[in-house]
Design brief:
single chain, Collagenase (Catalytic Domain), 2 domains, eight-stranded mixed beta sheet, elongated
């Protein structure tokens, strides 16, 4: 039996859009009173996660004072959060030209390139940020991301990011990893969070629904049943507010952690690693200690449960839930490529009747 290294949502690459790191300098705000008022309104909308309203008022502010680097910067943040990396990149580059002293601009440009799947450009901008802002608080995280990008860049350059699936990339090095037919139905325990302060009662249901999405994608070649005790579970899911519980020396960028155990027969020519158990842990706060929203939670749950079901690796396409880093281009749902990949992984198994929860 083998115990695998933890799998992390972002391999220390999670996107970190810095809202409160904009310096409150007098020369940073627009000169026009109306534009200045709109920027303040936009900042409040961003704080309250009212992204459409933030975009509207900041775009209006930019029409009034297009030479304000701060407006470009905050509009870039808004576009990033809306999942429009192309527009965000455009605004960050404009901001950098007009107001280069906003330290995290280069870092956020790296985020955009990573979200667009341009790993070389992403690394260049993280390196620029580290070189030019050596004392900034995000430098350790940027350095982690640079090293991780170096590790994965060659692998994803060779992969077909637009193909129907990414199955071949998963099995290229080590062969498939999966739950055997004999293990069905998989017994699942999801912690209720009852011992955590202000824990949203609907979040265990989001975790279970995320698991059901993968089950449905296999056309019921996987089946699951909920169990009342953790010691009965094949897949055990819980929550944390401490990023250090996800990985030793964690950077704070990771959003989840999956640890699996497996066994493999030496006589199996397919080199299949049969899963024995999986442990999924989800971080429920962001890098600023604030509770994450439901969409972010579902993205993380879907990604980590993909690992728990045997997707031993990542996609190089930022629209896939199994993208190797967090991506604003990704919806809180499985992509066609995610579904096609899990279908291939379990294609040799027979559909089974689903058990009641």
């Amino acid at each position: 039996m083998h115990r695998k290294r933890p799998k992390l949502v972002a391999i220390a690459l999670g996107l970190c859009l810095i809202l409160c790191a904009v310096p409150a300098l007098a020369d940073g705000f627009p000169n026009n009173p109306e534009a200045r008022s709109l920027v303040q309104q936009g900042s409040e909308h961003l704080k309250n996660k009212e992204l459409t309203k933030a975009r509207e008022v900041l775009e209006k502010a930019l029409q009034i004072e297009p030479s304000s680097g701060l407006i470009h910067f905050r509009l870039g943040l808004t576009y990033s959060k809306l999942g429009n990396n192309e527009a965000a990149l455009r605004e960050y580059l404009a901001s950098l030209e007009l107001q280069p002293h906003i330290a995290v601009t280069a870092y956020n440009i790296g985020n955009c390139y990573q979200g667009l799947g341009d790993l070389d450009k992403a690394r260049e901008w993280f390196e620029k940020y580290v070189r030019e802002e050596p004392g900034d608080q995000l430098v350790p995280m940027a350095q982690q991301r640079i090293e991780a990008l170096k590790r994965v860049a060659g692998k994803f350059k060779a992969a077909n990011k637009e193909g129907p699936d990414y199955f071949d990339t998963l099995i290229a090095d080590k062969g498939p990893e999966k739950w055997s037919q004999e293990k069905m139905p998989l017994k699942v325990f999801i912690d209720t969070g009852r011992n955590m302060k202000d824990f949203p009662k609907e979040w265990p249901a989001i975790m279970y629904e995320s698991l059901q999405s993968w089950v449905q994608a296999t056309e019921n070649r996987i089946s699951i049943v909920a169990v009342p005790n953790a010691d009965q579970a094949d897949i055990y899911c819980d929550w944390t507010t401490d990023a250090r519980q996800l990985k030793a020396n964690a950077t704070g960028a990771e959003s989840g952690h999956t640890d699996v155990e497996w066994a493999m027969s030496r006589k199996d020519p397919t080199r299949t690693r049969n899963l024995i158990r999986a442990r999924v842990r989800i971080l429920i706060i962001d890098s600023k200690g604030r509770p994450i929203d439901a969409d972010s939670l579902k993205k993380t749950c879907l990604h980590e449960l993909g690992h728990a079901l045997g997707i031993d690796g990542h996609s190089g396409n930022p629209r896939d839930i199994m993208f190797f880093g967090e991506s604003t281009s990704c919806l809180p749902a499985l992509s066609k490529r995610d579904k096609a990949t899990i279908q291939k992984l379990y294609s040799d198994q027979t559909p089974v009747k689903q058990q009641p929860r």
